[in-house]
Amino acid sequence: MKISTPYDAIGGEQVLLNLVDRFYFYMDSLPEAKGIRAIHQYNLSPAKDKLFKFLSGWLGGPNLFIDEFGHPMLRARHLPFVIGESERDQWMLCMNKALAELGMDPQFKINIQNALQQLATHMINQVPNQESGKVC
Known about the structure:
single chain, 8 helices, Hemoglobin_trunc, heme binding, Group II hemoglobin, iron
């Protein structure tokens, strides 16, 4: 079987659904992720659905998000939420834990983690105030 996209390499739809489910499990249960969890609705189902659809296309699978919602415009969609380095790091903590549960080539996992880290960093819309250390 020829693997042509990262979506194929991770195992396709079912594996991606499992990844998203585990990601939100960690977000919902890790004390270290309480900041990122707090900016989500109580019911995580809509967020799970959107992340799955986004990652599907982002990894080279079906463009489910674009088909339903149009261009992702991720930064614009995240501007209503306060996202600083802490929120980025909490998001990555949950994603890295979820990715660790997938059986994949270690270098491939590192490549995905690096790409997601760049994407998560792009979502930052708050910078620490140098004088107070608080996010503004």
